[in-house]
Specification:
Helix 1 (16-26) links the parallel strand 1 (2-7) and strand 2. It contains eight helices and ten strands. Helix 1 (16-26) runs parallel beside helix 8 and helix 2 (39-48) runs antiparallel to helix 6. It has helices at 16-26, 39-48, 53-63, 66-69, 83-92, 125-132, 187-207, 230-251; strands at residues 2-7, 30-37, 71-72, 80-81, 105-111, 117-120, 142-144, 147-150, 171-173, 212-214. It is globular and about 50 Å long.
């Protein structure tokens, strides 16, 4: 079964997309097209490029080391540069332009001048993905052509609207569940929560119209910057989606 798949942002939690896609594949679901934002755009680029979830898992766990990916930017519009992530994609992504991809792919970014959503689906892939991952203040705004762009999650962290004509077929994977607030949460967890609270109501409303909305609740125990926990985050996405699909099948 081929379905359009939407992958949300979520920082390190975005690695749960890979586990969820693995479970979907085991039940016969394949992407007819992919739309991604931020971490979802990063995962989506490799899946759209023809790599299967097992390949993406191995690639990221073997090669993604946060300490090596983050290079100090000397406070030049952001704490860190995106140079290393760009080099990683250039080395491992077999295609350079959207038009070459085996699976149609859309990347949602935020226009830093207007605050509105911009969608890239033609031209170079890597700049669009890096722009979609550029969390303001953490990374500098990303310039593409005459535009300046930042993390796509600011405008829409679950860009279901990119498949508005076929909403009833969409599989949406959202990796930002909202567990009860803990008064002992760290500053990073509070910022994480505030970031995703601003878009949650709209996401839940959109999710009512799709074919499947997958949101592993256990991901609430992981933060956006828990890149040292990718195997656990992957497993969380896989285990929940596997059980979710089994439940759907047993009820049908």
């Amino acid at each position: 079964m081929k379905k359009p798949i939407v992958l949300s942002g979520g920082g390190a939690r975005g690695f749960a997309h890979v586990g969820a896609l693995k479970a979907l594949k085991e039940q016969g679901y394949e992407p007819s097209a992919i739309a991604g934002v931020s971490a979802g755009a990063l995962v989506g680029a490799f899946i759209a490029g023809g790599m299967d979830p097992d390949g993406v898992r191995a690639l990221f766990i073997d090669q993604i080391k946060l300490s090596k990916m983050l290079r100090w930017n000397f406070l030049k519009q952001g704490l860190f540069t995106m140079d290393q992530l760009g080099s990683f994609m250039q080395k491992n992504l077999p295609f350079t332009h959207f038009e070459q991809l085996p699976i149609p792919f859309k990347v949602s970014v935020t226009d830093f001048n207007t605050g509105t959503q911009t969608v890239f689906e033609t031209g170079p892939i890597i700049p669009a993905v890096l722009a979609s991952c550029s969390i303001p203040a953490i990374f500098p705004p990303f310039v593409i052509g005459e535009g300046v762009y930042v993390d796509g999650g600011l405008a829409d962290n679950m860009p279901i609207n990119l498949f508005s004509a076929v909403l009833e077929d969409v599989i949406a994977i959202h990796v930002n569940p909202m567990p009860p607030h803990n008064t002992k949460d760290s500053l990073a967890r509070i910022i994480d929560r505030a970031w995703h609270l601003s878009t949650r109501a709209g996401i839940l409303q959109s999710a009512q119209k799709v074919h499947l909305f997958i949101e592993p609740p256990e991901l609430g125990t992981y933060g956006m910057f828990d890149a040292n926990k990718l195997p656990e985050i992957y497993q969380c996405g896989y285990d929940f989606t596997q059980e979710f699909l089994r439940s759907k099948i047993s009820k049908s």
